[in-house]
Amino acid sequence: MYLIGTDIGTTGTKTVILDEKGNLISKASKTYKVNTPKASWAEQNADVWVEAFIQTLKESVEKANINPAEIAGVSLSGLYGGAGVPVNKDMNPLYPCLIWMDRRASKETQWVKENVSQDKLFEITGNYVDSYFGFTKIMWIKNNLPDVWKNTYKFVSPKDYVIYKLTGELSTDYSSAGNLGGVFDIRTKNWSEEMGKILEIPIEKLPEKILSSKDIAGYLKKDMAALTGLKEGTPIISGGIDAPMAQLSAGVLNEGEHVFMAGTSTCWGTLLYDKKPTTPQLVNYPYVVDEDHLLYTFGGSATTGALVNWFIDEFGQMEKTFGEQSGYSPYELLEMKAKKVPLGSEGLLALPYFMGERSPIWDPDARGVIFGITLYHKKPHIYRALMESAAFSLRHNMQTAKESGIKLNPDCWIVGGVANSNLWTKIFADVTGYNMIKLSDNIEAPLGDAFLVGLGTGIFKKPEEIKNWIKIETTVNTNKDNFDKYDEYYKLFLELYNNTKEIMHKIAKL
């Protein structure tokens, strides 16, 4: 039997087909854009995900050249869709989805801080209040789009919207519900009527069914079978948020193990077993396997891979042009030059807060900074400084976890597109002090999705069987001397934010 996993990401969708031994049979991907109609706004139309899913699924099945009857099922993971898609009773979207990086709910966030006990919020939900969380975005829709609010039947996460289109069944999973924040009770693993009343968010506007990630959410409808090339009645697995699914793709099932998912943004996470959340500075919700016992706790930067993408788009035209002629990517060309720049970028220090920041500072008005620049500095200096800034942010989250009492193993798995950069992976290892383990097949979240198909349909009996799929490519070890040198820059990194955040906030208001 073959197992299909699809991850609906922020800037693209990827589908893979694996066999029962975890071997990659085929894959397909499609990219798309985030709509930013105003500063700090970020939204996407739901149909973009449906189209990308159908295209990548159909393409991967055609490449694999397999009998649809041999496909055990499909599982989906997705970006954190913030508020979710507001749909009417006919399940038609009423407004674009305000995704995780949208920061428009600043007034709503401030209202919660002034009117709701932070201790109560953390006790019930395991989380903090920030415009990152979906419940504040739902409040923004209520306060600013009365017609949309009035006609909204449900708020549906990205992958759950696609699942509905495939099956006609509406549900969500524990990780997606937990990442909404605010109205999810992490203790009972259900919607909190108490918080719903306090925040004036009717629980009735949220999906009634909350499933385990391995549960079958529904079965493929006849019309969608014709569009995708799959067999009618193929099981569709509930899946989960992309970050914990990427964590599962590294075979992580135990306390102390931790994974750095580095793509457009960063999600670094670890697990707690039968324990309460340790700090509101990190995000907490049930894991995608063994949800009754395992708590996924993570922190992340809003812009990681986005930093270098931005830099190349704005300043890398020469590298793009030369790359087209030479066969090298602009990333490879800039990395070749950045390798020659000494550790610390010769006195250049950057703050990576190009879209505000999530954990651990939770500051939507934080801004990017390139500090210490002189006429001596060249393009590779800035490129490397941006890479180092992402590593400092990762270390900040790791340090926050450790200070809250979480113990971490000396090795950290690294998955995602950023893991393809040898220089960046080495910088992460040297800045954080944790060795970085790279997988030979950097499939990421779709691998976790595919495994859940096997778990949900009975091909696999227990989560531990995913470890049979894990193949290590290499381990990039920390250089102790480099770590000691970076330690000074890390202290300045923290100091630079503390000394400039008031100015950042004033600029944001202007």
Identify the notable features of this structure and list them briefly:
510 residues, alpha+beta, Nucleotidyltransferase, domain 5, 2 domains, seven-stranded mixed beta sheet, 39% helix, FGGY_C
Tell me briefly what this model is.
It contains 17 helices and 23 strands.
What does this structure look like?
The protein has 510 residues and is α+β, with helices and mostly antiparallel strands. It folds into two domains: 2-250, ATPase, nucleotide binding domain (Nucleotidyltransferase, domain 5, 2-Layer Sandwich), CATH 3.30.420; 305-441 and 472-508, Nucleotidyltransferase, domain 5 (2-Layer Sandwich). The protein is 39% helix and 20% strand. It is built from 17 helices and 23 strands. It has a seven-stranded mixed β-sheet. It is globular, with a radius of gyration of 22 Å. The chain starts with a strand and ends with a helix.
